[in-house]
Specification:
The chain has 333 residues and is of the alpha/beta class. It contains 9 helices and 15 strands. α3 runs parallel beside α4, α4 runs antiparallel to α9 and α6 crosses α9. It is globular. One of its GO terms (molecular function) is nucleotide binding.
Length: 333
């Protein structure tokens, strides 16, 4: 750290659609100073402020950094991450962690060997609705978890060019599902469609099982005129519905009305019960993510999405694509 300042010296590479938000939040978070930015394509959103726009990661590193945020296209993640690891810089890398499982593994190994903190920007995990859901599940409010389904649908984003909907969007659902259930994926099966005339898939339907027996289902696309960001967790006491677009969490309780009709009394099902929508403190997920990364670098806590978790998510995403191509279910791990 710089003499005379206890703040972390942070750099940012990539000043595009996501990078501009990182620049703003890096300037807002306590204990962090944004000291350098880089993007060979310049500064389209005007977020550099008084900082010169550097050309590459080496120029960024030369500014003397403790931490860096990597918000460049996925194909460049590996080279930049390995340069940061070699320079001893902790990194928050936007998701997906890399463009292939092999590249992701090399990033994981480099940061582990250097003893550095590496995090992946799976921002949904820091959404207030999912944070509260995770806490309630940990407290046993749902009892045993049976099923998790997610729906992530909306119009096509012009910002994405180098990956399909599986790695860009479904990776959010893979990460949040494994985290909410506290279990890795065991199997995955998927169907994809190419409807927008691009090289990569723009729709996916996937179903699978987690190692702990929870069954999961994901509906993800870039071709819906309405935006939907929903996670439904069903278990023995009812169902939680988390809407991460509005950051709302609702609980639908199983009713406990006893039946007097003998012929269906033997059927073990549920009935409609009370519905509760929880009042949540709605902090910006990106800010919570940055605070978690800062605290991990300082050794205070470890609430980040680790590189290993980011790699596991990428491997499930790759398995989705593999399953769609082969027509077969893929077993993981």
């Amino acid at each position: 750290m710089a003499a005379g300042s206890s703040n972390l010296r942070a750099g940012l590479i990539g000043l595009g659609a996501m990078g501009r938000h990182h620049a703003r939040v890096l300037r807002e978070v306590d204990g962090v100073d944004l000291v350098a930015v880089a993007d060979p394509a310049g500064d389209p959103h005007g977020v550099a402020g008084g900082l010169p726009v550097l050309q590459d990661v080496q120029a960024l590193i030369a500014a003397g950094l403790d931490t860096a945020v990597v918000a460049v296209p996925t194909i460049y993640h590996e080279a930049i991450a390995l340069a940061l690891a070699e320079a001893g810089v902790h990194a928050l890398i936007e998701k997906p962690v890399a463009n292939s499982g092999e590249a992701g593994q090399r990033i994981v190994d480099a940061f582990a060997a250097a003893g550095l903190v590496g995090a992946v920007g799976h921002i949904e995990r820091f959404n207030p609705a999912l944070q509260d859901l995770r806490r309630r599940l940990a407290d046993g409010e749902l009892g045993e978890i049976y099923q998790i389904i997610t729906r992530r649908q909306g119009p096509f984003p012009a910002r994405i060019a180098d990956v399909g909907v599986v790695k860009d969007l479904a990776s959010h659902d893979i990460d949040l599902t494994a985290w909410v259930a506290q279990s890795p994926y065991a199997t995955i099966s998927a169907q994809v469609a190419h409807r927008s005339g691009r090289q990569f898939e723009d729709m996916v339907l996937a179903t699978g099982t987690l190692a702990n027996g929870v069954i999961v289902n994901h509906t993800v696309n870039w071709l819906s005129p309405m935006k939907e960001r929903v996670t439904v967790v069903t278990g023995e006491r009812g169902a939680f519905v988390a809407d991460t677009a509005s950051a709302d969490l609702t609980f639908y309780a199983n009713g406990t009305v006893a039946t007097e009709w003998d012929s269906i009394a033997a059927f073990r099902g549920v009935s409609e019960g009370d519905v509760i929508r929880f009042a949540l403190a709605k902090r910006e997920p990106l800010r919570v993510e940055h605070e978690a990364f800062r605290d991990a670098v300082l050794g205070i806590s470890n609430d980040i999405v680790t590189l290993e978790e980011g790699l596991a998510t990428l491997r499930v995403a790759e398995a989705m694509v593999e399953s769609a191509q082969s027509g077969q279910s893929v077993r993981l791990g």
